[in-house]
Amino acid sequence: MITISFPDKATERQALAFLLGRFSGRVLEGGLHLVPEVALEAIARENISFTVKGRASYGQQVAAIRGAAPASVQ
């Protein structure tokens, strides 16, 4: 899983509308999103701007799988 962010709320809404039903993911605090690596190419093909923050930590990934909020977002 990769942590990404979007430049503004409008872009974030557009991306979430596109991603919903296509890929699993998780919205974190602070405007960060966890998405699988394959989603990055799909978002880019849709010309949706995003910034890759890095690989998700183990804790973030486990929290996403369990459906719980991670203890801390780094």
Order of helices and strands: EHEEHEH
N/C terminus separation: 14 Å
- The secondary-structure class comes to alpha+beta
Proportion of strand residues: 15-25%
Can you list the strand order of the major beta sheet? 2-3-1-4
Estimate the mean pLDDT confidence: 85
Biggest pleated-sheet summary: 4 strands, antiparallel
Cα-based radius of gyration, to the nearest Å: 11 Å
CATH architecture classification: 2-Layer Sandwich
Give the helix tally: 3
CATH classification class: Alpha Beta
CATH topology: Alpha-Beta Plaits
Helix amount, in percent? 25-40%
Number of spatially distinct domains: 1
Count of strand segments? 4
Tertiary shape: globular
Low-pLDDT segments:
70-74
Would you write up a description of this structure?
By secondary structure, the chain is of the alpha+beta class. It has one domain (2-66): Alpha-Beta Plaits (2-Layer Sandwich), CATH 3.30.70. The protein is built from three helices and four strands. It has helices at residues 9-19, 37-45, 58-66, and strands at 2-5, 26-27, 32-35, 51-55. A four-stranded antiparallel beta sheet has the order 2-3-1-4. The longest helix is centred in the N-terminal third of the chain and has 11 residues, at 9-19. The relative contact order is 0.28. The model is unreliable at 70-74 (pLDDT under 50).
